[in-house]
Automatic annotation (TrEMBL):
InterPro entries assigned: Acetyl_CoA_COase_a_su, ClpP/crotonase-like_dom_sf, COA_CT_C
Family from the record: Belongs to the AccA family.
Record's subcellular location: Cytoplasm
Catalysis: reaction(s): N(6)-carboxybiotinyl-L-lysyl-[protein] + acetyl-CoA = N(6)-biotinyl-L-lysyl-[protein] + malonyl-CoA
Principal place of residence: cytoplasm
Gene Ontology biological process: fatty acid biosynthetic process; malonyl-CoA biosynthetic process
Protein's organism: Rhodopseudomonas pseudopalustris
Encoding gene per record: accA
GO cellular component: acetyl-CoA carboxylase complex
The protein's name: Acetyl-coenzyme A carboxylase carboxyl transferase subunit alpha
PANTHER family named among the record's database cross-references: ACETYL-COENZYME A CARBOXYLASE CARBOXYL TRANSFERASE SUBUNIT ALPHA, ACETYL-COENZYME A CARBOXYLASE CARBOXYL TRANSFERASE SUBUNIT ALPHA, CHLOROPLASTIC
NCBIfam families, per the entry: accA (TIGR00513), AccA_sub (NF041504), PRK05724.1 (NF004344)
Any Pfam family the entry gives: ACCA
Entry's Gene Ontology molecular function annotations: acetyl-CoA carboxylase activity; ATP binding; carboxyl- or carbamoyltransferase activity
Residue intervals of the CoA carboxyltransferase C-terminal domain: 45-299
Length: 324
């Protein structure tokens, strides 16, 4: 994904070039207006044109364009949702077997006054934090930490919230040596065995087993322009055509958008994003997500452990049957 840069605090995706040009013109006119020129009507006219162009673009995004939006570097990340929605958050570290994995954040806090366990992949928002969090790609110890926290939450009757945003589990040699596949499988199983309600929200990328390891939930919500897939478009392109440049073609064929996944029953709800994507109004997106999470948990309140497990099991057994 390449970005067309304007001013430091604003970035545009390739397909947003028409909007970028209009915004650049608006900035120029505002500079003239600040020097005393009476061009407010012209500024307003171009602002309306830019807003219309943005609305039209985002009303008809292709799967590949949605992939670019889901990966936008200014999109709100896991830590932003935790900061905006969770009070008294106390992060816990380590899997008690090997070490700490900062790609996967986990801890306990309060969501709208109620205790909650939070798990989420954090990609980072600067060079330093991206390296610190390994771009959101967890190693085995990250998933073993998730299992530890889920078991603790279950023991104390605390519901679990997962914030999913990863390109996939880390594929390095060390991760494989320490049992990456086994760790993902055990984390997925821990989700299924929870006797407390769990809700997952795909806030950006939902990449393969790295995502489903914490997203096997009673309710799976997904942002409007997020993606959720068994493999990245780039990897699928390399495998199917032995050509990594056909990622766009792969994305358009893989049914990775929220709209497709709702139709197949993979997810339960799509959360509308602000015009132009979540990165254009993070506070509004976080507030919308908070309301949806509260509503999802409200549907599960009062259910006993057996019912919670059965409902979750039935949900995954029914995936794909809606079109059958």
């Amino acid at each position: 994904m390449s970005l067309v840069m304007s001013e430091p605090m604003r970035s545009y995706l390739d397909f947003e070039k028409p909007v970028a040009e209009l915004d650049s013109k608006i900035d120029e006119l505002r500079t003239l207006a600040a020097s005393g020129s009476d061009i407010h009507e012209e500024v307003s006219r171009i602002e309306e044109k830019a807003a219309q162009a943005l609305n039209e673009l985002y009303a008809a995004l292709t799967p590949w364009q949605k992939t670019q939006v889901a990966r936008h570097p200014q999109r709100p990340h896991c830590v932003d949702y935790i900061q905006g929605l969770i009070t008294e958050f106390t992060p816990l570290a380590g899997d008690r077997k090997f070490g700490e994995d900062e790609a996967l954040i986990g801890g306990f806090g309060r969501f709208r006054g109620e205790s909650i366990c939070v798990l989420g992949q954090e990609k980072g928002s600067s060079t330093e934090t991206r390296l610190k969090h390994n771009f959101g790609m967890a190693r085995p110890e990250g998933y073993r930490k998730a299992v530890r926290l889920m078991e603790m939450a279950d023991r104390f009757g605390i519901p679990v919230l997962s914030l999913v945003d990863t390109a996939g589990a880390y594929p390095g040699i060390g991760a494989e040596e320490r049992g990456q596949a086994e760790a993902i499988a055990r984390s997925t199983d821990a989700c299924l065995q929870l006797g407390v309600p769990n809700v997952a929200v795909v806030i950006g990328e939902g990449g393969s087993g790295g995502a489903i390891a914490i997203a096997t939930a009673n309710k799976v919500l997904m942002l409007e322009h997020a993606i959720y897939s068994v493999i990245s478009p780039e990897a699928a392109s390399s495998i199917l055509w032995r050509d990594g440049t056909k990622a766009q073609e792969a994305a358009n064929s893989m049914k990775i958008t929220a709209q497709d996944l709702l139709r197949f029953g993979v997810i339960d709800q799509i959360l509308a994003e602000p015009k132009g994507g979540a990165h254009r109004d993070p506070e509004a997106m976080i507030a919308t997500t908070g309301d949806a999470i509260a509503a999802a948990f409200a549907e599960l309140n009062g259910l006993d452990s057996s019912t919670v497990r059965n409902k979750r099991r039935q949900k995954f057994l029914e995936i794909g049957r809606k079109l059958g």
